């Protein structure tokens, strides 16, 4: 049997052209794998037929929206994962899922090589190849844009020469990657970091400055998993999809930032993540109610490291596996309801309740009936301050 190359296929110009190009370069057959992670656009059957029309020996299409929501977006929400305290890991979350299905297809069809469309300048090449190394270290990798200096101009000329059944005329002024968790936009005039984004950059969110009625939503969580909106039981995918619509209609989730890429450069990125930002705000508030103080303090450092590992392409790493276990254990009491107001580009928590709440009205109130014994506080403060007091006295004695 000839060599088989498994290609991460999107259905667009670059990966469609890659099918015959890779066949020529390797002398083998190309297996196209398209994974639906909620990016929208064409239906899977149309994409599959295009891959075959462009010369793929086999075309695999996977509806992975529910899997992506439950196994990738929910863990990111439970980790409150915001890279550089702002970016909700939109692209970084989808790559390990795609890798998982590429490896599965390689095993099914006898593939020896995997190909992706990433350049040598971005993070995604690392995410794909680090994931492939972890799941099947025997697989070889070809990245035409990086390894063969394959440019868009060359792709268009190749498509025209081969008479491929794809549109080569339309080109967005931006580079866009989107999925259920959000949308990432870069390049074009955004590369000048003084230029402000204009409205045509956005698609998932409406202009937050436009006047409109506020939207109030109640999100129900069970052990850290969103399970209902306004009392209606939903799957994580359905929760995220609905919140993308509702929070997006209020302009929630717009992010404009200069980001530290893994490859060492800074990059200007514009993100839209309405559901991600709303869900994380609600989840963090429910953790405030249900997670004990020292556990919560330590978890914040774990959350940051978890986000960095995923951003850096180490989804399948031993450290992340161990952090996953810690985070999962920390979620066992994160159950209850959070009420939020979505309006003017913000998702604001206005109420929270939980059967597992650590909040005690009797201890917190300043009114009659206060159960907190304030007489105990004086001795506590004196003992708590004692090390600082001793050190301060020592310093004064040494200076005199």
Automatic annotation (TrEMBL):
Subcellular location: Cytoplasm
InterPro entries: Arginosuc_syn_C, Arginosuc_syn_N, Arginosuc_synth, Arginosuc_synth_CS, Arginosuc_synth_type_1_subfam, AS_cat/multimer_dom_body, Rossmann-like_a/b/a_fold
Positions of the Arginosuccinate synthase-like N-terminal domain: 4-165
Residues engaged in binding ATP: 8-16, 117
EC number of this enzyme: 6.3.4.5
Keywords tagged on the record: Amino-acid biosynthesis, Arginine biosynthesis, ATP-binding, Cytoplasm, Ligase, Nucleotide-binding
Pfam families, sorted: Arginosuc_syn_C, Arginosuc_synth
Pathway linked to the protein: Amino-acid biosynthesis; L-arginine biosynthesis; L-arginine from L-ornithine and carbamoyl phosphate: step 2/3
Annotated GO MF terms: argininosuccinate synthase activity
Quaternary data: Homotetramer.
Record-stated family: Belongs to the argininosuccinate synthase family. Type 1 subfamily.
Protein name: Argininosuccinate synthase
Organism the protein comes from: Actinomadura monticuli
Gene this chain is encoded by: argG
């Amino acid at each position: 049997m000839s060599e088989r190359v498994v290609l991460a296929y999107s259905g667009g110009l670059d990966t469609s052209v890659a099918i015959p190009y890779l066949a020529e370069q390797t002398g083998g057959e190309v297996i196209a794998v398209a994974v639906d992670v909620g990016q929208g656009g064409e239906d899977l059957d149309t994409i599959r037929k295009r891959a075959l029309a462009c010369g793929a020996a086999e075309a695999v299409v996977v509806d992975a929206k529910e899997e992506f929501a439950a196994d990738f977006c929910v863990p990111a929400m439970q980790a409150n994962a915001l890279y550089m305290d702002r970016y909700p890991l939109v692209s970084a979350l989808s790559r390990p899922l795609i890798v998982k299905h590429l490896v599965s297809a390689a095993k099914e069809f006898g593939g020896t090589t995997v190909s992706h469309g990433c350049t040598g300048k971005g993070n995604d090449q690392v995410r794909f190849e680090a994931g492939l190394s972890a799941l099947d270290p025997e697989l070889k990798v070809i990245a035409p844009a990086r390894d063969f200096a394959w440019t868009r101009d060359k792709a268009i000329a190749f498509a025209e020469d081969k008479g491929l059944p794809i549109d080569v005329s339309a080109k967005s002024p931006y580079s866009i990657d989107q999925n259920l968790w959000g949308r990432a936009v870069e390049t074009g005039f955004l590369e000048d970091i003084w230029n402000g984004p204009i409205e045509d950059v956005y698609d998932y969110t409406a202009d937050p400055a436009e006047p409109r009625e506020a939207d109030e939503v109640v999100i129900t969580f069970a052990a850290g998993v969103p399970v209902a909106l306004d009392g209606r039981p939903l799957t994580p995918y359905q929760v995220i999809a609905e919140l993308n619509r509702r929070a997006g209609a209020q302009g929630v989730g717009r992010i404009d930032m200069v980001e530290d890429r893994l490859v060492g450069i800074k990059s200007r990125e514009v993100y839209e993540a309405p559901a991600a930002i709303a869900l994380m705000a609600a989840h963090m508030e429910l953790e405030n109610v249900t997670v004990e103080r020292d556990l919560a303090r330590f978890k914040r450092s774990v959350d940051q490291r978890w986000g960095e590992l995923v951003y850096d392409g180490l989804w399948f790493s031993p450290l992340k596996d161990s952090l996953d276990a810690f985070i999962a254990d920390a979620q066992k009491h994160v159950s209850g309801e959070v009420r939020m107001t979505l309006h003017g580009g913000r998702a604001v928590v206005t109420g929270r309740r939980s059967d597992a709440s650590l909040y005690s009205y009797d201890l917190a109130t300043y009114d009659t009936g206060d159960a907190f014994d304030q007489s105990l506080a004086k001795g506590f403060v004196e003992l708590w301050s004692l090390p600082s007091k001793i050190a301060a006295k020592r310093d004064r004695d040494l200076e005199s």
